[in-house]
Amino acid sequence: xxxxxxxxxxxxxxxxxxxxxxxxxxxxxxxxxxxxxxxxxxxxxxxxxxxxxxxxxxxxxxxxxxxxxxxxxxxxxxxxxxxxxxxxxxxxxxxxxxxxxxxxxxxxxxxxxxxxxxxxxxxxxxxxxxxxxxxxxxxxxxxxxxxxxxxxxxxxxxxxxxxxxxxxxxxxxxxxxxxxxxxxxxxxxxxxxxxxxxxxxxxxxxxxxxxxxxxxxxxxxxxxxxxxxxxxxxxxxxxxxxxxxxxxxxxxxxxxxxxxxxxxxxxxxxxxxxxxxxxxxx
Length: 282
Prior knowledge:
Structural class: mainly alpha
């Protein structure tokens, strides 16, 4: 094969080579990533008397509040409604905390970016991983308590890491995108707050997807749209199925995974293309 023939072939594989190089850089700077994750966790509990114990006590206190409130007020006839709500809240808090912290991850580390080179993806990634640690600690408390309160566990519970991985892909893709966008448009933080509020109420955290009409105005299939266009609806439902009701994960999980992978690829590409000018903009 001549040099002219090899050139198009190399260009065809260039995106994959760039992705491999980016992953290699992240691995080389893994010590920095670990340090930033530790810093984010330490800052969260700085000057706290209980420190990391809050990661365990927070879901305990939340469960106590919901147990008291929803034993008196039962807006829906849902089995284990307290656990039903808490499952949705834990998953949602992982998303909301990662995006709220991730959107500021570049702009709030301007001094670090100006002084030393490192893969800029490490900053939003460290925020997401710190929130993942808190989420896993919360699950470590939630699962035994859920079992004590009557949750049904089965072999499907073993698929929990897969559902967490799907959510992690989704969250990381969004965090990369909003963190880079906020460098150029600082009102991204305000828009994100509003978007998260709207997204929260459109996601079945406190309510069941089954309450949605199959058809609205005889035209729109609202139930199907919620599963297809709102990946968090599927992810939260999966958490409930495998942690509370020993059901298999739903088929729409593949849609959420595909959407998450697209967002991760798009967010990463947008981040990589804009990263070279971060120093000038922050």
